[in-house]
Amino acid sequence: MSKGWAVILGVSSGFGAATARELARAGHPIFGLHLDRRSTMPAVESLLAELEGYGVPVIFVNANAADDDVRGQAIAQLAEACATSGVGVQVLMHTIAFGTLRPFIAEGNAALSRRQLDMTLDVMANSLVYWTQDLVAKELLGRGGRVFAMTSSGSIAAWPAYGAVSAAKCALESHVRQLAVELAPHGITANAIMAGVTPTPALDKIPGSAELLAKALARNPSGRLTAPEDIAQAIAALVAPGLAWMTGNVLRVDGGETITG
Question: Which CATH architecture has domain 5-260?
Answer without folding.
Answer: 3-Layer(aba) Sandwich (3.40)
